[in-house]
Amino acid sequence: MAAAAAAAVGGPQPPQPEVPAQGPALDKAATAAHLKAALSRPDNRAGAEELQALLERVLNAERPLAGAAGGEEAAGGGGPGEAEEDALEWCKCLLAGGGGYDEFCAAVRAYDPAALCGLVWTANFVAYRCRTCGISPCMSLCAECFHQGDHTGHDFNMFRSQAGGACDCGDSNVMRESGFCRRHQIKSSSNIPCVPKDLLMMSEFVLPRFIFCLIQYLREGYNEPAADVPSEKDLNKVLQLLEPQISFLEDLTKMGGAMRAVLTQVLTNQQNYKDLTAGLGENACAKKSHEKYLIALKSSGLTYPEDKLVYGMQEPSAGTSALAAQGFAGATGTLGQIDSSDEEDQEGSQGLGKRKRVKLSSGTKDQSIMDVLKHKSFLEELLFWTIKYEFPQKMVTFLLNMLPDQEYKVAFTKTFVQHYAFIMKTLKKSHESDTMSNRIVHISVQLFSNEELARQVTEECQLLDIMVTVLLYMMESCLIKSELQDEENSLHVVVNCGEALLKNNTYWPLVSDFINILSHQSVAKRFLEDHGLLVTWMNFVSFFQGMNLNKRELNEHVEFESQTYYAAFAAELEACAQPMWGLLSHCKVRETQEYTRNVVRYCLEALQDWFDAINFVDEPAPNQVTFHLPLHRYYAMFLSKAVKCQELDLDSLLPDQEMLMKLMIHPLQIQASLAEIHSNMWVRNGLQIKGQAMTYVQSHFCNSMIDPDIYLLQVCASRLDPDYFISSVFERFKVVDLLTMASQHHNLVLDVEHERSMLEGALTFLVILLSLRLHLGMSDDEILRAEMVAQLCMNDRTHSSLLDLIPENPNPKSGIIPGSYSFESVLSAVADFKAPVFEPGGSMQQGMYTPKAEVWDQEFDPVMVILRTVYRRDVQSAMDRYTAFLKQSGKFPGNPWPPYKKRASLHPSYKGLMRLLHCKTLHIVLFTLLYKILMDHQNLSEHVLCMVLYLIELGLENSAEDDLEEEVSMGGPERCHDSWFPGSNLVSNMRHFINYVRVRVPETAPELKRDSLASTSSDGLGSLQNSGTAQVFSLVAERRKKFQEIINRSNSEANQVVRPKIPSKWSAPGSSPQLTTAILEIKESILSLLIKLHHKLSGKQNSYYPPWLDDIEVLIQPEIPKYNHGDGITAVERILLKAAMQSRMNKRIIEEICRKVTPPVPPKKITAAEKKTLDKEERRQKARERQQKLLAEFASRQKSFMETAMDVDSPENDIPMEITTAEPQVSEAVYDCVICGQSGPSSEDRPTGLVVLLQASSVLGQCRDNVEPKKLPITEEEQIYPWDTCAAVHDVRLSLLQRYFKDSSCLLAVSIGWEGGVYVQTCGHTLHIDCHKSYMESLRNDQVLQGFSVDKGEFTCPLCRQFANSVLPCYPGSNVENNLWQRPCNKSTQDLIKEVEELQGRPGAFPVSISSETNLSKEMESVMKDIKNTTQKKYRDYSKTPGSPDNDFLFMYSVARTNLELELIHRGGSLCSGGASTAGKRSCLNQLFHVLALHMRLYTIDSEYNPWKKLTQLVEDMNSQMGNEDHQPEVPILYHDVTSLLLIQILMMPQPLRKEHFSCIVKVLFTLLYTQALAALSVKGTEEDRSAWKHVGALKKNTCDAEKSYEVLLSFVISELSKGKFYYEEGAQECAMVTPIAWSPESMERYIQDFCLPFLRISSLLQHHLFGEDLPSCQEEEEFSVLASCLGLLPTFYQTDHPFISASCLDWPVAAFDIVTQWCFEITSFTERHAEQGKALLIQESRWKLPHLLQLPENYNTIFQYYHRKTCSVCTKVPKDPAVCLVCGTFVCLKGLCCKQQSYCECVLHSQNCGAGTGIFLLINASVIIIIRGHRFCLWGSVYLDAHGEEDRDLRRGKPLYICEERYRVLEQQWVSHTFDHINKRWGPHYNGL
Q1: How confident is the model at residue 1199 (pLDDT cuts 50, 70, 90)?
Q2: Which of 1818, 1742, 1730 is nearest to 1782 (CA)?
Q3: Which residues are bridge partners to 142 per DSSP?
């Protein structure tokens, strides 16, 4: 078919074919059907031509972009757009062949063999990666496939795609089939029917034209940008115009396999391409477009081979327009210039002198790789334009969508490789290189992750050659001359890290692809076998060798700290190390030996070239260091692999001695520089040099940097002469001059203050060098274990930080994947998991791993810790933790030294390393240092001693060689240090006594002041020689001369050229005139020095006693636990014991030394010196202990304080605050001001106030009546409706009342404040109000940034720093009054009722007269203002008439209600626990009541409206009460909220209130409450229940106790209410709905008690606060009776033996039946008209459950999957930062501008509406909770933790998260107790932007 189509398309074009004349108006569908029929005929030539012409017309219609000359701007007008639309419509019709397009799509989809998913996504898409199922590390799955597959127990994570990607489900090259999802498991090709021929026939004709049309548009639209600045505007314009076309193609790809096959045919068919694009023939448009294409090619610096037009420029063929000719000329002209300027750029401008351009291995090939492109198919040209247009997202998606088609995949991969060089060229020039990099990798990762494909293109398209060439090409553009070593003559070039290419990581896509293909074994093998490629690659690596050179600043501090080191480290890691790890992963077995040999060979050659290029002989240039030696590291790593895995002989891979000496210089230089940097010798180079030193050892870099360096040094040390190596080390570290026995010396190269740390550095380096076994024989698991122990010893770690800190092999396919089996098993072996905990301060811990005790005991390895610490403090931290462990386990009480750890055995190849421990140079150094320490010379530290002993011990452990052999080998001619030690074995040298030493000392030295031989050894300090020999390190000079000779011989150069290189300090003694010679008497051996050291350290004479004299066994036992841990004394004992074990001679000598009792030094001298150091130590120790003690004391104070201040539920250990309530001995309450510190009462003129925080709260409104907490909705069905919340119910009630009753009376019948109520809390501290004002002033002037806003009156309590925003004045008054008021009174109830009424009627009956403005009254007014302003107006104004006084009245008593209700909730909703809770002690209710009462009394209630009258008096004429019909009646008393009435009555009384009046009010109100309960009960019952109850009650009505019998009262209420239409309205339907309850006397009693309990609780709390009485505690079932008796409702003579009945508490003020009749009448008259509402108002739901946040699902993924794609209900977009409110479940856009209203973003707005300013939101994309409180916000943390107890903020790790119930409870507790402000510390302003 395709062939037929091609034939139809091509061929000479006949003159215009007969097109039906109707023209464009023609019905498209009919034409399509007609054409389809024509084409289906066997001879379809005519049909084909007809279609051809139609397409020509339709698709060429108005060439929209050719409107303006040269296509500079798109043609204006509506024309083009319509033409486009029309063309697309035509295409759709033609494809469908006359049918409907949608049906056509469905039909094609039916033939889709869905074996692969292939879903393509762009950046920020959420996808999954499962390491268990992945074959390639880049494998990824879309969420749908992931959830449909089974990955339980796998190692997977969710991630946000950086660059975009595609789903690999169904592709067995990339992942294991077990992980496929249900859809893609079936290999469905067999059962999919064959595609019918005619279905896609039209597509095969239409699509080539369509794609050609698209390409023409792309050609037209592209203008070669002038001066190399692509005008992105123009490109984007073109792309926007083409959007519909590309989308159309994208839709086609989504139709499935059948359509993709057609598209593949079209895109790859070369014939089609040739016929359509050749640009021949008559069509001018086509010609012009072809010319534009050629110009584009040319200007890209690409040639189009075999194209006559290009080369035949002189005679333009007749067809070529002038435009083209001048275009070419222009292009070639500019091109020529561009080229030459490029050359200059590379040659001249950087001053490179005569640098030869690096010749690439493949001579002719390289030009062609970089410069030649020939397009043979649509696919190739499409990709070309995709690159030209810098990878538009739509095009990328289209090209990737096609990938499930296998044939296409291969063709596309080849095309991509063909364009590879061009892609990178474009990338280098691009301005948007980041976006472009991502898009490139988006494509390449799909192609190169597939091993089969990668192998194929490697073989057929030279992929490796192309990549390496392109990499070289890229880096060549930014080379500069290296300044390392010999600046003038250096021929070496390095990359310049300051260039954009490196700084911006532009090379990243390339390197990433390279690493990706090297991870495939077949490809890596090709690479390792191809010598040419290896040479080129080493050449490439050498560009990085020695980059970013640091030169030490000696005078000034650098002006500008360059940050290029980031680029340098990144480049070495990504461009050198990662490919190296990739290659290494394929050199694991013997069969691959050849590869290693190749790499090592070319690596050495490159190194040799490098040494020649930088002109290196034998001394590194001083004061410069580079951390980048990739060639050394390649060499080292391949050596290590060869020995470890491939069983190669190390020596066969090593170069000669001279090369080894050169190889060791630079890595050693780095180690010395590290010590210099840590000694602050590089401080003038700024902070960045420290940054480099840290990065070099940091976990992501260490195994590609410091580890190979140390390994290489170990290899060199094992093969070079040990004396040479040791002396080189001390010389590099610049401490040679320090190693003298004289007490004074001149150091020519080092300042005195740096000597100590450099010496420590040198010794530490030697210890690391000799003890590290990472590459010398440890297995992978042992290495992992050692790394893990080191990290855990520094600090407890979370699982993720451990994963991050353990250097894993950076190559993803290495097999040791973090989180792999071995990681987890090692972790569980060495560490214990500490579950996440909370401290009461609110700081939340993550789950941590901490080392097991046996790890501290046996595996703690200080050497590994030192090697791996980035910060020096971590070493100290590890030691502190070790010390703590020893103290805790009782192993060692003092300050221990780092323990000595036995090492794993060396691999035989490296045995030579141990010769370092047995060389005289080292022994001389050790002897000298021991002597100097013993003599207290300057600049020596405990650390030095520790390392010296460590080295001695290492030597004793590794002294395998026979003594005899040693003696023999030393018998040669070289006897120059026999004077020092006879042999080179440490065991025998330890006992060798040294008598006299000649030293060179400055003339001022103390040694010269006295006659050296007459004195005892205490005067004879000394250095390293016996009389008659040269100074010790002249020995090194000898050594060097010898090596020099070796070098000279091999270099065949004259000696004298090199000799002067030896620096003067090595020259013969006597060259520096200011030194003179002295001879010291020493008479010590290493053993004797050690024993004396023991005395010195223990501070006692003869403290050492050989243990074997008591117990000979110790010499045979291998390990003695008592010596494992301890300080220096233990170390010395351990060493002496080991020395004795190794040789009998040593044992004898030790005993002899111990027998000589003579003190080693005159006692007074040593004690003085000792005393000095000991005193110093002791003083330090004492100071430290003092400090610890102080800190501990401070901490405990703070803790106890925090507990009282923070924890709402800890009644014990509480410091009583200063508000004393009932203490008779004090006449007035005394307050302490925490600002001025004075104590005194609060007075009118100088009032004292409580520090309070006022906040609006809607917590009460969130109570619901069901116990089950609401769940967060996680499907569309589950939605939360707030109609059952307390706030909603109260709102409905109030608006119902307001509909039928008088407004002012409604506002007294309820409380508000369920939402937006004001909660007042205090820390309990008091201050003078005037002090507070000045304190606020000072805060205002304080420029420091505070977390609170002083302008809003916010401050922190000066004493406890608790957040506050107001001061509540304390009412002056004595406490004794309280007691006087509490005398039991004998007045009758009637009298009290009268008194109450009179007191209420007296306005302003207040000790303080309001008229006189005192300070106190002013303050009370201002605090009242504060209280009002705390909440929003909508939560204060409920009146119909705005600003009515009733509103204020309602608001004020509701504040009291809110605070009482909240306290009740904090006590758990009941008062069973009793006691004065902490809240009680720190409660400010008493003061608050005074303030409220003062203001309430400004409003008087007209006496006839006072509810008190209705409660206590009978009205004569009931009808007059109802008033006229027309104006609204008052609220019937039975509809009143009794608790509100209580507060109104009490606040209307003069303060302080008398107890008897309080009790009286409660008694009266209880009668009303009880009646309400009965009425509600009567409504609850059915008709039958009611008649039964009525009957029972009527019988008992005349008994004596009738007024206290609930049966009688109930029957009476029923009969009274029946007079109205109260019960009749109930239709049958209602009865059917409510299942009738079987009422028993018990259940009725229970109902009544539950109805009354809330009132009793509030009254009891109020009584507790006003009169200071404690609340009794009780069982839940007796709460009612206990509270009743506490309130004085229960008569005292009440008997407790028979069951308690609530009615017995009744104490009617007037005849019960009369007053009840009166109350019921009000209702019946109302229900005559509104029966339904009347009933609804009577049943009040009083049993609210405690408020809870929404219940969250166990697994976070359920929330994430539902919400992260959910659209916002306001703006209908998917929010960028979705969040959900945890109080009510509302979904909001965080920071979304789309939902902003009046400058408030949605979260802030919601926090005001839902929580009156407090919002708790879960951020869906981050899994964290954010709290909004007023104008501030804070990140609270996460309540979802992973399996290791860690948060995953921002879902970076993407591990499954599970709810942590404890954390969620803490969050809820803080919400309910309003303590967010106090517990969370990090608040910031949100400026309404959340």
Answers
A1: low
A2: 1818
A3: 127
Q: How many CA atoms lie within 13 A of 1715 on its CB side?
A: 22
* pLDDT band, residue 434 (cuts 50/70/90): confident
CA distance 1162 to 1172: 16
Residue 1266 has pLDDT above 60, yes or no: yes
DSSP summary character for residue 1061: G
Query: How far is CA 209 from each of CA 54, 57, 64, 99, 213, rounded to the nearest angstrom?
Result: 11, 11, 16, 21, 6
Q: Give residue for tokens 């004065």.
A: 1476
Query: Which two tokens mark 1074?
Result: 């200011």
- How many CB atoms are located within 10 Å of the residue 572 CB? 24
What are 39-93's pLDDT values in tens digits? 666 666 666 777 777 777 766 644 444 333 333 333 333 344 566 777 778 778 7
Question: From CA 1636, how far away is CA 1583, in angstroms rounded?
Answer: 10
38 and 46 in contact (C-beta within 8 Å)?
yes
Give the tokens for residue 1583: 């008709």
Name the one residue in this structure whose structure tokens are 């979260």: 1803
Q: What is the 3-state secondary structure (H, E, C) of 1508-1519?
A: HHHHHCCCCCHH
Whether pLDDT at 356 is above 60: no
Q: Using an 8 Å Cβ cutoff, are 1826 and 1836 in contact?
A: yes
Question: Cα(866)–Cα(1612) distance, rounded to whole angstroms?
Answer: 90
Selection from 1679, 1738, 1716 nearest residue 1602 by Cα: 1716
CA angle 54, 57, 58 (to 5 degrees): 85
In the chain, what's the furthest Cα-to-Cα distance? 140
Contact predicate 501/474, CB 8 Å: yes
3-state secondary structure (DSSP) of residue 951:
helix
Per-residue pLDDT tens digits for 951-969 = 999 999 887 554 433 333 3
Sign of the dihedral defined by the CA atoms of residues 835, 836, 837, 839, in that order: positive
Residues 1599-1647 have pLDDT tens digits of 767 777 888 888 888 888 887 666 765 443 444 444 566 788 888 888 8
SS3 69: helix
Tokens of 1537: 């909220």
Tell me the C-alpha distance between 1324 and 1248, whole Å: 12
Inter-residue contact 639 to 653 (CB < 8 Å): yes
Question: Which of 251-255, 985-989, 1222-1226, 1329-1333 is most confident?
Answer: 1329-1333
pTM, 2 dp: 0.82
Q: Nearest Cα to 1653, choosing from 1623, 1677, 1627?
A: 1677
DSSP code string of 1768-1823: PTTT-S--SSEEEETTT--EEETT-GGG-BTTB-HHHHHHHHHHTTEEEEEETTT-
Can you say whether the dihedral through the CA atoms of 318, 322, 323, 326 is positive or negative? positive
Q: How far is it, in rounded angstroms, from Cα 1134 to Cα 1140?
A: 10
Q: What is the mean pLDDT of residues 1723-1746?
A: 78
Long-range contacts for 1416-1422 (Cβ within 8 Å, ≥24 apart)? 1416/1242, 1416/1243, 1416/1244, 1416/1245, 1416/1247, 1416/1369, 1416/1371, 1416/1372, 1417/1494, 1419/1247, 1419/1249, 1419/1329, 1419/1367, 1419/1369, 1420/1369, 1420/1490, 1420/1491, 1420/1494, 1420/1495, 1421/1495
Whole-number Å distance between alpha carbons of 1065 and 1057: 19
More confident residue, 1473 or 793: 793
What's the one-letter identity of residue 549?
A: L
Least confident of 535-544, 1141-1150, 1397-1406: 1397-1406
pLDDT, mean over the chain: 78
CA distance 1240 to 1370: 12
